[in-house]
Specification:
This protein has 473 residues and is α/β, with parallel strands linked by helices. The protein has two domains: 249 residues, Aldehyde Dehydrogenase, Chain A, domain 1; 190 residues, Aldehyde Dehydrogenase, Chain A, domain 2. It contains 16 helices and 21 strands. Helix 3 runs antiparallel to helix 5, helix 3 packs antiparallel against helix 6 and helix 10 crosses helix 11. The longest helix is centred in the N-terminal third of the chain and has 18 residues. It is globular. It starts with a helix and ends in a 6-residue tail after the last strand.
């Protein structure tokens, strides 16, 4: 057993030991641990009871619960990162620590659901953000810990309980996080099983959750197929679908900064986050300079022959106009030097990104890869770059990035891309509040139009009108 695995096991055993002492809080048949169940129905029933109990909890206690969830998550941010890396084989655990911190600190809490009041000659109306009830949440293997943390904070802040159906390849990490957060909730005075999940999640359990009568709303962070299935369930769905974020660089950009930011954003956690830069569309006059700056910051440029070999390796279904294609899952989230090794190229672990100059019709440009392989296309001018960006993004309206000092062109691209997130002159993760203004979320619900989700996303509006009284003017 290596040192990393031994460290993880020791910490997990300590937490599980603490959780086992809370067994008296567990309810519902089929429970195998705090918040973790053997079957979906037991998980839903327990979450439903927890929701009804939670309705009696004060807002002040709810705030304490969120505070304690942040505290315990921060204490275990490193072990969760290492667990996710070890279980899924994706990303870099050190980057996952940063990602966990972002979700813990910058996901909004109860302050996001403040009420509104309106008054006129006929009295006063109060509008409040109310919970839906039991939320059914499907979470991915790419960001398992932080998606559960961020969703749990937002959904509980909104007053809901949650049933998670994690991705099967991240089930151990996901169950650990759910159990850990439940302990924090109970310690802060909240009900047991406010968060639940099942120990052996499957596609069938996800479908069962979608159809369960006690699930009020679905929040799906995953691929297009599962989002489509959820949207056809008859329930309200907040769906986070695919993206293929283009990054445009024009001749007015600060090229040194652009090269540094693109490598930082595109290689962060080996590109598994859906907002990461997926292709570069660069004005020809500055393309060589951009490549040099990228190479200074950890990119390695492949030769045409090496690009051909890498493409055959990482693309299982080539993307093209009107068709997004598919990446080879074997290489999703792998280190750049791991991918390079399989084409006979020996690179150091410090290599963050494989840079591939290709033409605009190349499948690397049209396929969302979720790995540190970065195609670069030369274009004659910024207008051609912007037009091509719209095409290669496939109309997902997810994320786009631009490096430019031309306000008119920045405004043009923001308008025509019409994405949930648009980052100007920064790495992609700035759009999630890491080095940029704003809050964090790892459920970017572009297909359903909800955008970057937050506690108020998980509420429904209720209006109370008092006629002819309480207006004080």
């Amino acid at each position: 057993m290596d040192q990393l695995e031994q460290s993880i096991r020791q910490i997990v055993e300590q937490v599980v030991k603490g959780i086992s002492q809370e067994k008296n809080h567990n309810t519902g048949s089929g429970n195998v641990g705090i918040g973790v169940f053997n079957n979906l129905n037991s998980a839903v029933e327990a979450a439903d009871k927890a929701y009804r109990d939670f309705c009696e909890v004060s807002l002040e206690t709810r705030k304490l619960i969120i505070e304690n969830m942040r505290k315990i998550s921060m204490e275990h941010k490193e072990v969760m990162a290492k667990m996710a890396h070890e279980e899924t084989g994706m990303g870099r655990w050190s980057d996952k620590v940063v990602k966990n911190e972002l979700g813990i600190v910058k996901t909004p809490g109860v302050e996001d659901i403040h009420p509104e009041a309106f008054s006129d000659d006929r009295g006063l109306t109060l509008v409040e953000k109310a919970p839906y009830g039991v939320i059914g949440s499907i979470t991915p293997s790419t960001n398992p810990a932080v998606t559960i943390i961020s969703n749990a904070i937002g959904m509980i802040a909104a007053g809901n309980s949650v049933v998670f159906n994690p991705h099967p390849s991240a089930k151990k990490t996901s169950c650990f996080v759910v159990s850990l957060l439940n302990k924090a909730i109970i310690d802060a005075g909240g009900p047991a099983n406010l968060l639940t999940c099942i120990s052996e999640p499957t596609i069938d359990s996800a479908k069962e959750m979608m159809a369960h009568k006690k699930i009020a709303i679905l929040v799906v962070t995953g691929g297009p197929a599962v989002v489509k299935t959820a949207m056809n369930s008859g329930k309200k769905t907040i769906g986070a679908g695919p993206g293929n974020p283009p990054c445009v660089v024009d001749e007015t950009a600060d090229i040194a900064q652009a090269g540094r930011d693109i490598v930082a954003g595109a290689s962060f956690d080996n590109n598994v986050i859906c907002i990461c830069e997926k292709e570069i569309l660069c004005v020809a006059s500055v393309a060589d300079k951009l490549k040099e700056e990228m190479k200074k910051n950890g990119a390695y440029e492949l030769t045409p022959d090496q690009i051909k070999k890498v493409t055959a390796l990482v693309i299982s279904e080539p993307g093209r106009p009107g068709h997004e294609g598919a990446a080879n899952k074997k290489y999703v989230g792998k280190n750049a030097n791991y991918i390079a090794k399989d084409i006979g190229l020996d690179l150091p672990d410090s290599t963050r990104l494989l840079l591939c100059e290709v033409d605009k019709d190349h499948p690397l440009v049209w396929t969302e890869q979720l790995m540190p392989v970065m195609p670069l296309v030369r274009v004659k001018d910024v207008d051609e770059a912007i037009n091509l960006a719209v095409e290669v993004e496939h109309g997902f309206r997810h994320t786009a990035i631009m490096h430019s000092l031309n306000i008119a062109k920045l405004s043009k691209m923001a308008k025509v891309m019409n994405c949930s997130i648009f980052i100007k002159n920064g790495p992609s993760y700035a759009g999630l509040g890491a080095g940029g203004a704003g809050f964090a979320s790892f459920t970017i619900a572009s297909p359903t139009g909800d955008g970057v989700t937050r506690p108020r996303s998980f509420t429904r509006e209720r209006r109370c009108t008092l006629v002819d009284y309480l207006r004080i003017i």
